[in-house]
Design goal:
There is one protein chain. With 188 residues, the chain is of the alpha/beta class. It is built from five helices and eight strands, in the order E-H-E-E-E-H-H-H-E-H-E-E-E. The strands form two sheets. The chain has a four-stranded mixed beta sheet with strand order 1-2-3-4, covered by helices on one side. A four-stranded mixed beta sheet has the order 5-6-7-8, with helices on one face. Strand 5, helix 5 and strand 6 form a beta-alpha-beta unit. The longest helix is centred in the middle third of the chain and has 29 residues.
Length: 188
């Protein structure tokens, strides 16, 4: 894996770089072969007491992404790696099944090691994770993004699906962690 590590409002020291490469490199143990991927790491200091790290690992037909905040950058790195490992363990069976159905080789190792079991992993939980418990159907009223944000706020939801009055596409508005709003549109 190739590492692209950059810092915002901070300098990425050689010791931080080595620590990131060592810790994020641990996710390689979950793959049958070393993935050919660029690992994008963005580290930043938001205030005097808040460090954040964002790790994105784009691979063919799979994207791993996690972000964490902590008062200590090294602790944030540890937490983000734990989050990546949880994602891999959670999706391992489903991703391998998808690859098998398409006629390609499994991407993740099939055996579960002692370290995975000690991290609270249970194979039975994996199958139950995607149990849909409710399905909702509703008409998508044509509106603009501003009206959709108002509807979302009136309902007290964190996202709202609507039909864009300008182009007829299905769009989603959502409330971001910073309190502002985002819009999701389909690609043309």
């Amino acid at each position: 894996m190739n590492y692209n590590i950059r810092g915002e409002n901070m300098e990425v020291t050689p010791s931080l770089r080595d620590y990131v490469e060592k810790k994020v490199g641990k996710v390689e143990r979950y793959f049958d072969s070393t993935p050919v991927a660029d690992v994008h790491v963005k580290m930043q200091v938001r205030s005097t007491n808040e460090h954040s790290i964002e790790v994105t690992i784009p691979m063919s037909q799979l994207l791993l992404r996690a972000e964490e905040k902590h008062s200590d950058m090294y602790a944030a790195i540890d937490l983000v790696v734990e989050k990546l490992e949880r994602q891999i363990r959670k999706y391992k069976t489903k991703v391998n099944r998808k690859f098998r159905q398409s006629g390609t080789k499994d991407i993740f190792k099939n055996e579960i090691g002692v370290t995975e079991l000690s991290n609270g992993y249970s194979p039975e939980e994996e199958e139950d994770y995607f149990n849909l418990v409710r399905t909702k159907r509703f008409n998508l009223k044509p509106m603009d993004a501003e009206e959709a944000v108002l509807q979302m706020d009136m309902l007290g939801h964190s996202f709202f699906v609507f039909s864009n009055a300008d182009n007829g596409d299905t769009n989603v508005v959502y409330r971001r962690k910073d309190g502002r709003y985002g819009l999701i549109e389909p690609e043309a």
